[in-house]
Amino acid sequence: MPELISDQVRAACARVAARARSVRVEEAAIEAYARALPPVAELPPPDPATDFDEGDREGRIAFVVCLNAINFGSGWWPTIRKRPGHSGYFTIAAGLNERFRAAGPWSADQLIRLGPADLAAVTGQDPALTLVEQYAAALRDVGEHVLAEHGGSFEALVKAADGSAAVLADLLAGWEAFADVSTYGGEPVPFYKRAQITAADLNRSGVATLVGEERLTAFADNLVPHVLRLDGLLLLDPALAAKIEAGALLEHGSAEEVELRACAVHAIELLSAASQLSPAEIDAALWNRGGGARYKSVPRPRSRNTAY
Q1: Quick check: 32 and 267 in contact, CB under 8 A?
Q2: Who contacts 69 (Cβ-Cβ below 8 Å, separation ≥6)?
Q3: How far is CA 184 from CA 12, 24, 71, 187, in A?
Q4: What pLDDT score was predicted for residue 114?
Q5: pLDDT per position as a tens digit, 112-139
Q6: Other C-beta atoms lying within 10 Å of the C-beta of residue 133
Q7: DSSP label at 107?
Q8: Which of 76, 171, 252, 301 has the most CB atoms lying inside 10 A of its own CB?
Q9: Hey, is 6 helix, strand or coil?
Q10: Which residues contact 160 (CB under 8 A, 6 or more apart)?
Q11: What is the dihedral of CA 36, 37, 38, 43, to 10 degrees?
């Protein structure tokens, strides 16, 4: 099988981890940490407030793809209007879910015409917020690709992956809406967090059966590196740790930010090799762990970008 983007992510992150100066994987702790992982990833049950499980398969696939196309903005979370009891991500997911339930899924033609005012109404945010325009641009790109390459059908998009999670991630990685490549030491470092997690989420939602999910890497964001840091698997340079804890934004694509993401992906590859869990399963367990009080009590890395 030809090299897939997940293989490229894996290799690039290992390369960064071997050269990183501000972040280090504590490899001596891998075996014990792997033994303490749950035997099966602890996924929460579907939440009717944020999981769209109504209607036909086309609409449910459209929801997963559209939600992951706008599954970024964590650097903006401290500034947005959050729903009571909701994090930034779940605020956006709940708004999209309500729109799909009230008016049905967007068609590819409708997606192409979306503007900031439309996304502001859906997400409950100020239409002048940069993030809202980025959401609209991402969804317009989704509409253009689904229309031009798959006849306007989200089901056809999934069918084009021929039942493979990794191939679906490859298809999405070619879209601007899912772009996610940084540079480190003059070399490209692909992450494709949202392209890969879309494939995993289609499986988790039960709307598709895509094999080979174990070939996906971890989904490099800011929360999983935070969990690994507090759990002692990522060791940070004191200056970087101080910057994060002071709430300073990290520049997207900076060496420090790339190292955080890449070392987290590499650490999870090592954990997967030492356990019976896939990188995607470990990522899900750690992401959910990050919602605990201990992890919320310490500032996490923040960077404003369209990757995560």
Answers
A1: no
A2: 138, 139, 141, 142, 177, 178, 194
A3: 9, 16, 24, 5
A4: 98
A5: 999 999 999 999 999 999 999 999 999 9
A6: 15
A7: P
A8: 301
A9: helix
A10: 149, 150, 168, 171
A11: 150
Separation of alpha carbons 227 and 59, rounded Å: 34
Helix, strand, or coil (residue 237):
coil
Distance CA 37, CA 25 (A): 17
Q: How far apart, in whole angstroms, are the C-alpha atoms of residue 175 and residue 168?
A: 12
Which pLDDT belongs to residue 191?
Answer: 98
Residues 31 and 191: beta-carbon distance below 8 Å: no
Taking the C-alpha atoms of residue 107 and residue 89, their distance in angstroms, rounded to an integer, is: 23
CA distance 238 to 173: 35
Residues in the chain: 308
- The torsion angles phi and psi of 201, rounded to 5 degrees, stand at -70, -30
Cβ–Cβ under 8 Å, residues 12 and 262:
yes
- CB atoms < 10 A from the CB of 66, how many? 26
User: CA-CA distance, 93 to 112, in Å (whole number)?
Assistant: 20
DSSP annotation string for 157-223: HHHHTTTBHHHHHHHHHTSGGG--EEEETTEEEE--HHHHHHHHHHHHTTS---B-GGGS-----SH
Confidence tier at 35 by pLDDT (50, 70, 90): very high
Contact at 8 Å (CB) between 234 and 259?
A: no
CA dist., res. 109 & res. 97, Å (int)? 19
Computed from CA positions of residues 66, 81, 101, 286, in that sequence, does the dihedral angle turn out positive or negative? positive
Residues 126, 117: Cα–Cα separation, whole Å: 8
- Report the DSSP beta bridge partners of residue 181: 190
Q: 78-93, pLDDT tens digit by residue?
A: 999 999 999 999 999 9
Q: Treating both helix axes as pointing N-terminal to C-terminal, what angle do 5-19 and 255-273 enclose, rounded to 10 degrees?
A: 110
pLDDT tens, residue by residue, 145-166: 999 999 999 999 999 999 999 9
